[in-house]
Amino acid sequence: xxxxxxxxxxxxxxxxxxxxxxxxxxxxxxxxxxxxxxxxxxxxxxxxxxxxxxxxxxxxxxxxxxxxxxxxxxxxxxxxxxxxxxxxxxxxxxxxxxxxxxxxxxxxxxxxxxxxxxxxxxxxxxxxxxxxxxxxxxxxxxxxxxxxxxxxxxxxxxxxxxxxxxxxxxxxxxxxxxxxxxxxxxxxxxxxxxxxxxxxxxxxxxxxxxxxxxxxxxxxxxxxxxxxxxxxxxxxxxxxxxxxxxxxx
Length: 249
Description:
Oligomer: single chain
Strand content: 25-35%
Order of helices and strands: HHHEEHEEHHEEHEEHE
Structural class: alpha+beta
Shape: globular
Largest sheet: 9 strands, mixed
Number of helices: 8
Strand order of the largest sheet: 1-2-4-3-7-8-6-5-9
């Protein structure tokens, strides 16, 4: 039975979650994230890996003080471990903590992570994200020959949303693509405040909420720097979309 103290800690944890969590996450995700942070200091890095039986997926949850390069470090670590991301949601609380949730699969088996892999992932992420200097460089990969004929030019669309900029990317899926995108945004010196990532077969649709280092929407020069960094990451020319790509909640 849950003790009164445990219940109070869980209630307090639910109050600490960003408001958007209750709009964008499923009930079971909210409960698991609240359990992970319950009773933990606000400045602590928290990593939890759990399975949602109803969806047949493994879920990675990371809560940590927000800082530059955090998202890129998470993506680079997943890439190095051969763990793929099917969906992701990045949220930031008013207290400056990130609440990052990822639906993940073991790329070697195309299945959920077993207990040993989940424990390994948690231990490595705690070490990487707890370090003073974040290592964000993804693994260098060669595109498999079987995928080369199915690659289309990535489409980018920038739009200002309030005091931030939304970047929409539609591209062909390939090994390490999300880690490459995260590293490119890191190199462009933009901050990622939210991300909605979804994979549909061979196509990836990503939406990122970005600001410059001062917390403002990207100006024309900042957009061009980000576009150039993404072009280098993809290794092919990107195209500007007609601006009709929108993230769903």
